[in-house]
Amino acid sequence: MADEQTTQGSAQPQGQPPAQNTPNPQIPIEQTPAERFASEAMAHTGQAADALRKGELMQNSEIDPLADSDDRLIALLSYLTQIVIPVIMPIIVLLSESSKKRPFQRYHAMQSLAFTVLFWSLIILTTFGLVLIQIIPFIGQLIAFMFGCLMPFIWFAQALLLIYYGFQAYKGRRFAIPGLTSFLRDQNWL
């Protein structure tokens, strides 16, 4: 009798595992701000990789007719000073009262600041990873040596990009760095 009640009470066929509680697909799962930030960053990274594969160093380049010579010079310096003294010039531009009335200056200061912060964050994370990989006796030292040999070339490529972007800004162009600028816009930082 007890067997009849259990077989009649269960709606699943015999030999099948019990059904698991799955969330209702109609109820949206809300992401935390960190999850949303990470998913947007991953999407923009894919866009940047596609653009760089095509050889695009900048997108949506257009000349800003409102940019005067002072705006263009400040935008150029926002990029070029990142090579020698990172972060200082864009922060000065972003904090100054006069730049609040100068959208061209603020645009390029924020973009150059984000580019430099991203570059140095990746270098720091890679260095941290190299320290951790030193646990492996021979391979860890070999990988660290290879990264040490590549570091001057990586820094040189970053410097060339900053010079290129600086001179594009000096020409009065407002452009998008693939992946980075769209991410900054999504975060309402630009």
Characteristics:
single chain; two-stranded antiparallel sheet; 5% strand; mainly alpha
**Fraction in helix:** 55-70%
Shape: globular
What fraction of residues sit in β-strands?
A: under 5%
Overall mean confidence score, pLDDT: 85
State the distance separating the first and last CA atoms: 72 Å
Structure report:
The chain is mainly alpha-helical and 190 residues long. It has a domain at 61-190. It is 66% helix and 5% strand. It has seven helices and two strands, in the order ααβααααβα. The chain has helices at residues 2-9, 33-53, 69-84, 88-95, 103-133, 137-170, 180-186, and strands spanning 59-63, 173-176. A two-stranded antiparallel ribbon has the order 1-2. α3 runs antiparallel to α6. The longest helix has 34 residues, at 137-170. The radius of gyration is 26 Å and the shape is globular. The relative contact order is 0.16.
